[in-house]
Amino acid sequence: DTSLAEVNLFSPSMPISPSSMINQYKLEDEPELRDLFITVDDPESHITAIETFITYRVVTKTSRGEFDSSEYEVRRRYQDFLWLKSKLEEAHPTLIIPPLPEKFIMKGMVERFSDEFIETRRKALHKFLNRIADHPTLTFNEDFKVFLTAQAWELSSHKKQGPSLLSRMGQTVRAVASSVRGGVKNRPEMFTEMNDYVETFSQKINVLDKIAHRIYKEEREYFNEMKEYGPIHTLWSASEEDIADSLKGVASCIDKCCKATEKRMAGLSENLLPILHEYVLYSEILMGVLKRRDQIQGELDSKVDALANKKTEKDLFSEEIGKLEDKVECANNALKADWDRWKQNMQCDMRSTFTNVAENNLRYYEECLATWESFLASQTVDLHVEEDSEDRP
Amino acid sequence: MEECLAKKMEITVSEAEKRTGRNAVNMQETYTAYLIETRVVESQNEGQCAPVDSLWRRYSEFELLRNYLSVTYPHIVVPPLPEKRADFVWHKLSADNMDPDFVERRRIGLENFLLRVASHPVLCQDKIFYSFLTQEGGWKEMVNETGFQLKADSRLKALNATFRVKNPDKRFTELKHYSDELQSVISHLLRVRARVADRLYGVYKVHGNYGRVFSEWSAIEKEMGDGLQSAGHHMDVYAASIDDILEEEEHYADQLKEYLFYAEALRAVCRKHELMQYDLEMAAQDLTSKKQQCEELATGTVRTFSLKGMTSKLFGQETPEQREAKIKVLEEQIQEGEEQLKSKNLEGRDFVKSAWADIERFKEQKNHDLKEALISYAVMQISMCKKGIQVWTNAKECFSKM
After folding, report:
1. Where in the sequence is the signal peptide annotated (chain B) (predicted)?
2. Which residues of A touch B224 (CB under 8 A)?
């Protein structure tokens, strides 16, 4: 029996917050019809003779008929996620498959198995599976079902099925051969516009990602200095009598603001940074999807060109061309629909993320304001008391 | 007691001007001159406004004035001058003495100095100070004619006294420790404040980068465009707001700096006490040894080892006449010494009394001023928070419309 109260869908962090519940309703077209709930948690380290790796627990709760049971619990490692992604890309070359967290993160100099790294990855993997579950087409993918339900040995044997690596490589070579710069000259206007959009979007989202990281860094440096600032006032109060209370008051205010800054930083790293990073990856995915569409188009175009040069075997060709034309039409439609959906989701995500950033900052300033105002009130009360006692002879 | 000059006369340092001139070694130099304006306050005729007198002074003349006051009134905690060179600077501010912001803050500091002196019950009555405010030409000569430089104690002598004094007044020893602590803690505070200001500047300015990206991004978005664009504008406002905020904070830092320098003035009074006390102890010691010598000569007993004693043993004793002469000289010296000791004692007690009175006055002033400064700091923080709330409320609205 599934219930919204138990499992939180889009917030990767486990405690349910009201705002993330609201986010779910914004993101989903028909929330009442949700019938698949997935969580990724409990990272565990496994040490074998050959390697060390982490597995994550994937819990699925569902009311769908295609599933034999209503609840599943499996363990998956990063490799398994990679496998799933490549199977989805294979099956749906012009659908926008959600991004996976990267294999390694160089720039942060985060050690491969640090707690921070594992937690960031866990959240991203949780997001990945939920975005798939949310996708009208991908959610019914067979490999996705296997991923969610199969025990370790079942998954291994399932992976070995399907076209061999060699034949898959052959497909790729043929695709490339038939589309060196294929699909571009007959590309419908809509997809050229998409291409232009993605290029600019990619630039901008990368810059935003950098800005967000810089803001985080500056806030952290500010926090580090603030930590030292309050205590000096306390130290000073030790040599004073009359103004000791005022000094201690200031020290306490500064310390409270310091804590508030820490909260603000945490807000950034929990919300803005992961979303922007996800969309940086998304922009690469979009470019890949557009290229694949061009390749499919290219296959058709080169066959059409070949037909123009051949006088014989026209019937054979026209059947093949018919099939390719269908393929192109399917690919285009799939992409168009998924594109619109992606844009809507992106707009939603950006709106809620940046609104959250603003709320974070508001909370920070409101907390600091309250602290200083109460200090000021305490000081002016003293002043009035002093003034009164001065008036009396 | 006569009313403070500050109540009878309006004093302002209203302008600062860059000048070029020739210095003592006839080399061209650039310096800043400050315009001091004074106006006598007519309490009876409300309607009538006395004319404003003005003259120009440069920083070195202020320094001369302060040196004169410190030497002439060693029992007074003399108000300090604003710093000569920009210190505790966070890196966005210039450390250049010619920088207009620094000059402006110095102008305010110099005015504050004059007002402090003018409202001091003792210092405000000084003629040299009055001439400083009112007499443009010949003031330097006038100061030098007082011969105050001769009265100044050598730093070496003072240092010697600090180490060797045996019985300084306990209160001065405590005060010395307090002023050391005050100096140390305020320096530390100012250093960290400068670093905090630097970092705060960084946080605000980085948000300014949002404006341009949002604007460029909005160009490719149909529905999100307006929200992005206007949010970006608010981020620009946010980034720009830090400049005024930090400029105001500089004035707070200047208030703390004044008391940092006041700590030095406190130490100077303690040093003077130590010097006087040491002088007294030396004079008493000298007197005691002379009395002893006299006694030895008179009774013929050598109680302590002395070179004279040894030489007289080696080279023969003196004649009774010689001894008589010596005793007479010593007795004169002893009498002189006792009078001197008496007057030194009196001087010392007077100094302690008047110094302590001024120190009590200073303590009250310090507590009042610092408390006010802390309150003004809180007010600044509140204003900064309110500005932040306004900007982010606006930004939130724009984001929610994306």
Report:
1. none
2. 347, 350-351
User: Are residues B40 and B157 located together in one domain of the fold?
Assistant: yes
Distance from the Cα of A246 to chain B's closest Cα (Å) equals 7
Nearest-by-CA chain A residue for B397? A355
Chain A residue closest to B203 (CA)? Answer: A218
The closest of A284, A277, A287 to A335, measured between CA atoms, is A287
Measured between beta carbons, the chain B residues lying within 8 angstroms of A219 are 203
Q: Are B221 and B343 in the same domain? A: yes
**Domain limit, last residue, from B161, B190, B216:** B161
Structure tokens at A311: 């006088």
- Cβ–Cβ under 8 Å, residues B225 and B141: no
Chain A residues inside the 8 Å CB shell of B189: 229, 232-233, 236
Overall number of domains in chain A? 2
Same domain, A140 and A199: no
User: Which candidate from A242, A249, A361 shows the least CB-CB separation from B367?
Assistant: A242
Question: Is A177 inside a domain boundary?
Answer: no
Nearest-CA distance from B52 to chain A in Å? 35
- Domain containing residue A117: CATH number: 3.30.1520.10
Range of the domain at A47: 34-153
DSSP-derived secondary structure letter, B80: P
Nearest chain A residue (CA) to B370: A243
User: Which of A247, A257, A354 is opposite residue B374, by nearest beta carbon?
Assistant: A247
pLDDT in tens, A73-97: 999 999 999 999 999 998 998 899 9
Return the residue in B375, B380, B394 with the most chain A beta carbons within 10 A, the one to mutate for interface testing. B375
| A34 three-state secondary structure | coil
CATH number of the domain within which A302 lies:
1.20.1270.60
DSSP B147: T
Q: Do B382 and A373 touch (CB under 8 A)?
A: yes
B contact test, residue of A197, A258, A372 with most B CBs within 10 A: A372
B112 with B174, same domain: the answer is no
Answer yes or no: do A144 and A206 share one domain: no
* Whole-structure pTM value: 0.84
Alpha-carbon gap, residue A346 to B402, rounded angstroms: 11
**CB atoms inside a 10 Å sphere around CB B288:** 12
Q: Are residues A134 and A218 in the same domain?
A: no
Evaluate whether B270 touches B161 at the Cβ level (below 8 Å): no
Q: Which two tokens stand for residue A41?
A: 């948690």
So what's the pLDDT on residue A391?
52
Q: What is the pLDDT along chain A (393 residues), one digit of tens a residue?
A: 444 444 444 545 544 444 444 444 444 445 556 789 999 999 998 888 888 888 999 999 998 888 888 899 999 999 999 999 999 998 998 899 999 998 876 555 555 667 888 898 999 999 999 999 999 999 999 999 999 998 888 888 887 776 655 555 555 555 555 545 555 777 888 999 999 999 999 999 999 999 999 999 999 999 999 999 999 999 999 999 999 999 999 999 999 999 999 999 999 999 999 999 999 999 999 999 999 888 888 888 888 877 777 766 666 777 788 888 888 898 899 999 999 999 999 999 999 999 999 999 999 999 999 999 999 999 987 666 655 555 544
Measured CA to CA, the distance from residue A263 to residue A144 in angstroms comes to: 37
Amino acid at A274: P
- B306 within some domain: no
The number of distinct structural domains making up chain B is 2
Q: Is the pLDDT of residue B214 over 80?
A: yes
Q: Which domain holds residue B218?
A: 166-299+322-401
B308 vs A105: CA distance, rounded Å: 89
Q: Show which of B161, B193, B214 is a domain's final residue.
A: B161
Q: Which of these three, A153, A180, A207, is where a domain ends?
A: A153
